[in-house]
Amino acid sequence: MRRWNGWGDDALGMTLNDNAIAMLTERVGAGHKVEDASLESVLAQVPPSPLAGQHGVDISPRARYSVALGESYPDWIKKRFGVAVPVPDGVVYPETSAEVRHWLDRAGEQGWQVIPYGGGTSVAGHLDCPAGSRPVLSLNLSRMTRLLHLDQGSQLATLGAGAPGPVLEAQLRAHGYTLGHFPQSFEYSTVGGWVVTRSSGQQSLRYGRIEQLFAGGRFETPIGTLELPTFPASSAGPDLRELVLGSEGRFGVLTEAVMRVSRLPEHESFHALFFPDWERAEAAVRELVRAKLPLSMLRLSNAIETLTNLTLAGHADLIRWLERYLGWRGCPVGDKCMLMLGVSADRRSAAQALASARRLSRQHGGVYIGRRMGDKWRDNRFKGPYLRNTLWEHGYAADTIETAVDWPRVKPLMQAMEQAARDAFAEDGERVHAFTHLSHLYSQGSSIYSTFVYRIAPGGFAPNLERWRRYKARVSEAIVSHGGTISHQHGVGSDHAPYLPAEKGPLGMATLAELCRHFDPQGIMNPGKLLQDPPR
Amino acid sequence: MRRWNGWGDDALGMTLNDNAIAMLTERVGAGHKVEDASLESVLAQVPPSPLAGQHGVDISPRARYSVALGESYPDWIKKRFGVAVPVPDGVVYPETSAEVRHWLDRAGEQGWQVIPYGGGTSVAGHLDCPAGSRPVLSLNLSRMTRLLHLDQGSQLATLGAGAPGPVLEAQLRAHGYTLGHFPQSFEYSTVGGWVVTRSSGQQSLRYGRIEQLFAGGRFETPIGTLELPTFPASSAGPDLRELVLGSEGRFGVLTEAVMRVSRLPEHESFHALFFPDWERAEAAVRELVRAKLPLSMLRLSNAIETLTNLTLAGHADLIRWLERYLGWRGCPVGDKCMLMLGVSADRRSAAQALASARRLSRQHGGVYIGRRMGDKWRDNRFKGPYLRNTLWEHGYAADTIETAVDWPRVKPLMQAMEQAARDAFAEDGERVHAFTHLSHLYSQGSSIYSTFVYRIAPGGFAPNLERWRRYKARVSEAIVSHGGTISHQHGVGSDHAPYLPAEKGPLGMATLAELCRHFDPQGIMNPGKLLQDPPR
């Protein structure tokens, strides 16, 4: 069963080995363990609903609380510390676009506000419930998960927008297809959520970002239905799909998504290479991506992340062997950076691409160490978030912040993000273990994905929120001042909304506000997300 | 010097060989030659300008007429028959974004309407000048052609939006880079025009459509400046670049375009293959594009286009040899379809991709005939439009219509487009020589590009316009009824505006109208383009 106050299925736990705990103790100090609130205690705080008696609306505290929070750090500590939070006043479970239409119309008539709910995996506060006087209805799309149509001739699959990764892939795989979209949240996040937050998956190098996979569909807005027909490409005016992508529930609700799928690849494998230092590793990946080799993944860890990953992996024998081998091949152990590389193609193309990538990497001092670590990565590709549970149980908090920036600023921004966090914690007399990888590479630049592990603060919810706020602001300011986007793959939500004007500019923000007013003249849709203030 | 009433430089002419003329005579009848109007006669019809005396505004008839028409068939016959047309009342030649800003502000204050002008190559009526009472100012961007900045670290080039293909490529090539965007109009069309009409180039398979190449820039709108910063990718809300792409002068003027450029490829070559029939050829190209082989171009001609191209090429010896060779290799001569295939990469990748493509084509009966025809294609890649001049001199009109549609409808729509034209001409007692190729291939579907050659009608401008209107409407209706987009690469303009609601839907059209009102509250920008009626 899904954990109510942590990541994932409660039948699955990850353990931290002794070396990992020793590393954390050395780097940030002994963990500060806290006691979790019980689900009963938080449910007891849910107030009575003004929607009581409304036909078809679930007003149970359990249903309402379950859609009130996502997986951001603030949401996480609200659950762990059992803080009372505003929750939607009712939840509905539409099964069709017509039912979504019905609830939007009803909300408009009644003056309710509406928050669409997909998989609840937002890490940017997309589910924050306003505390105002208007009733809030949660549109839970968890019953819209079906593969409605598969057009094999055009390789287009029409899916219920609430389909989470495994449900979606299982239905496609039965026909020999894959969407190829694998964000780390894959187990719970939904295709509709991916589209409206502009998500990107681990193998986007082959399959593209969600923008490239989203071909059309059905979008229900307060003022009517936007039907997006499918074309392979078009020059017929502005592309209206782009108003759905990134709309984050402000303009309407995506109910059916037509997605570009692919035949399952004949061959897929993941491979590890090590580089002596960041400079050479970055030069290699930049060249790899610009050579347009048909790879499916490039994922470059900086030296601290490489060390962290090896420590977490915990196979002392493997690591000893690896370090001996790297030393023998001329790759010094200290600053080594690991590159994980994926190929997904027909056997011949995959072999050629891998060979070309190895050849090119060698010119930058890269040492290929084979598939063993790649296999391990693949087996654990969605398990990273489970470690957050384990860390919390050991008294540590974990958070991630990501961006994307043009190549000349990748290294400076990566360093600035880690340093900004260290500085923010230092003011508190604390330390943070910060490490980073590049997960989505482009000719122009790269995403930067940093993880921050630090001790839980004593004193409960408020000091922990304060600690997070300070460091999050510092890192976000570093991103903005280096010309990075406030999010490469997690969207804006509430948490990133203050930083959006820096990249959209005044006219851009006014345009987004105008689109809100256009699609949602009564201002009922997902208030406060994307745009900080209700644009009216 | 550029021809005033036909395509291209008047120092360059194409000839039609006897076989080609015989083919046309057999297929549509003897050409009906007409006498062209003189430039003097059309300039004499230009009325006095209400902008006389405005500082910095060129009101000469020559300047005004030269920006009044593009290269669509209606525009072509207006020039050839010397018809009086509404022309802008003045032309300005801004050299900077600030000067564009100045003219937009001035137009707003004075109640003038504004038509931006790039290379004048529109084939969809993007330059149509309204005949109303408000003065019309043409913003001619031909002095904004410089490479303003080249950031080699991120492979981003900032260009004046008025830079035409050769000027742009020459500046990039001096540094070892290419944009890789080669539409057939390359010699005259501009980077700004490519962006605002969502253009696609011949090698989009490698370099992407203009949407993928456009990273950001500066967009001057009547209500202010939209600055689009560059990110390799972003999930921070709707992508505002997408409102510039396809805006066709309705929302503002792109003044500086930041484009993603690439190092010049180590190797580039073009190769021809022949398939016994359309079915096998289509199956092969579908598989080629879905295999994601690193090719730079796929261009498949149907049997009539293949025959036409071979006849035009006119090398009787080559064709005899080719047909004998194809027969010996088991590829029957009658229905053969030619595939032109490009590779642009490092030598090794290019060789591997070509070998894979040949192997895969062989499985579908494809016969590889080497580089000779590919070299010929490359040499003439931008010369196709020159033939239109020659055909006209022989008494024939040539026009093209293009779309894109999902794979299951590619062949039916291709046939329907050609048949719709044949039917429309038959009602007139005329015949049309119609042939088609697929030039931009996607996993989901393909563009369809049809050429129509028919006799000039006797009786001057009116019957020729009427003949075109009837056939254009029939073919456009075939496109819409088969679920194709009204344009894959030429945009909407005036000519396609009536068909836009079929794909955007009522809410989509209302949204575009709302965006017009937002960016252009006084309705001064490029009236009648994209949206048929002024949206107010």
From TrEMBL, chains A, B:
Keyword terms of this UniProt record: FAD, Flavoprotein
Family annotation (Pfam families): FAD-oxidase_C, FAD_binding_4
Keyword Flavoprotein attached: yes
Sequence ranges assigned to domain FAD-binding PCMH-type in this UniProt record: 84-264
InterPro entries: Alkyl-DHAP_Synthase, FAD-bd_oxidored_4_C, FAD-bd_PCMH, FAD-bd_PCMH-like_sf, FAD-bd_PCMH_sub2, FAD-linked_Oxase-like_C, Oxid_FAD_bind_N, Vanillyl_alc_oxidase_C-sub2
Family of this protein: Belongs to the FAD-binding oxidoreductase/transferase type 4 family.
Protein name: FAD-binding oxidoreductase
